[in-house]
Amino acid sequence: MHISSKTRRRAACLSVLAAALGAGACKDTVVPDYNRVPIPELANSPNRTLVDAAAAGLLHNARRDAPNRVRVIGIVGREAYILDANEPRNVTELVTGNIDPSSFTGNHDYNNPYGTLAQGQLLLAAIDKVPDVEYTTAQREALRGFTYTMMGNDLLIIAYMHQYGPTEVNADPLAPPAPMKTQAEMYARAAVLLDSGVAHLKAGGSSFTFTFPTGFTNYPTKFNTPLGFLKFNRAIRARLDLLRKDYAAEKIHLDSTWISTAATTRDALNTGVYYNFSTNSGELPNTLGTGSTEVAEPTLRTDAQLKSDGSRDNRYTLKIDSGAARTQLGITSRLRFQHYKTRPFFGNTNQNSPIPWVRNEQMILDRAEARWFTGDQPGAMADLNFVRTNSGGLDPIATPATGAAFITALLYERRYSLMYEGGWRWLDLRRFNLLGTLDNYPRAGDKSITYWPVPFTECLARGGAGSAPGC
């Protein structure tokens, strides 16, 4: 990555300088003011306090893009629209598919994730430099495993959104740009980073040396120990496997997570890791819990299947309500999402509500797909119907006669289970080469993009248009 000297400097110190300890990441830790600590201290003379702060900062940085990721990928995947007369680009770019790589719509999930890679590289080097009296061997191992995991997670986000991007961040901001890689190469590198964390986490002892945010501790299982965090690592690795349709590997990695069909409650389905938000001073609010310009796609209502009593799928009624009609540029909806407002996950409301990072219900549906495409149709249908009946309240369905029919059934369950949680509808349709079904909707000529563009500033640093793949 080689954007601009200003951006590269920001990437190199991202979370340490920018509220590294905010959003509950280390409420219980007393630290100096890291807005005034020069980055050379982390690089050249790190201590335990500074390294712990930088680690906590990776978690802070990871959730910066989460609300907008739900929002903008939700628009291109036809889950939602932002009908705001003051910002028509939410329609003129995201709905039409003509995304300007120099606009705010074309710069999502790029700089911040690469900032995680930059800080991760710096942190891995710093861990080894902290004096021996400040960390045990196990504590260093836990920090290494954590850092590799966060780097792998953020590179995976870059990979599934973009067709091209670097897999490394230059340590020297004056060096030539790191080479652009294909999506397949980014996936491969993300897998290496995630897998690199496994042995370190296993050797990481019983606890971390910094405090985790509530998204890893409150919903309702705790993932803030090295072995607990290892389950999160394997869940992200299984997600990577799903996205590149490596189903055999996915099943293996899911077995090392918290996936379970032992309980049928909503809380059991929601058990997982979440991006946490708060309106407290120094923390980040969840902007999905505010605003009247955000509307849901009208076909979510008409396509919702009916339960035996004639009412709609529980997932629809849980997440969506009707309100006043809103119209902009030929798009109209009266539907509003409620799962970050009045009916959010685990009860926090509005700007305090969490956004799922990965939860049990999603992993069960992921496993259904993996089982089907590795020849285990009974297992696939057991998982599919478990979610369908316990989350949707719908009657179970018989085993589809064809693979195409199974995909249709799977995509229905995923559409309603994962509705407006992370852009999964767009990713699911792309994985099965079905993005074309969104063409000419909601208006004639509208089109869903296949990949997010490489930001203009990245291409400019490489010499402009045509200077590198994706530019």
Low-confidence stretches: 2-38
Largest sheet: 2 strands, antiparallel
Total number of strands:
8
Instruction: Tell me the quaternary state.
Output: single chain
Strand neighbour order, sheet with most strands: 1-5
Total number of helices: 18
- From the N-terminal CA to the C-terminal CA, the straight-line distance is 13 Å
The share of residues in helices is 40-55%
Structural class: mainly alpha
Walk me through this protein's architecture.
- This protein is mostly helical and 471 residues long.
- The chain folds into 3 domains: 1-65 and 109-211, no CATH class; 245-290 and 351-432, Serine Threonine Protein Phosphatase 5, Tetratricopeptide repeat (Alpha Horseshoe), CATH 1.25.40; 292-336, no CATH class.
- It has 18 helices and 8 strands.
- The chain has a two-stranded antiparallel sheet with strand order 1-5. A two-stranded antiparallel ribbon has the order 2-3. Strands 4-8 form a two-stranded antiparallel ribbon.
- The radius of gyration is 22 Å and the shape is globular.
- It starts with a helix and ends in a 10-residue tail after the last helix.
SSE map:
Blueprint: H1 5-17, H2 39-44, H3 48-62, H4 66-76, E1 80-82, H5 89-92, H6 111-129, H7 137-161, E2 164-165, E3 181-182, H8 183-202, H9 226-243, H10 247-254, H11 266-270, E4 272-275, E5 294-296, H12 299-302, H13 314-319, E6 320-328, E7 331-337, E8 355-359, H14 360-372, H15 377-390, H16 403-417, H17 424-431, H18 456-461
Antiparallel strand pairs: 1-5, 2-3, 4-8, 6-7
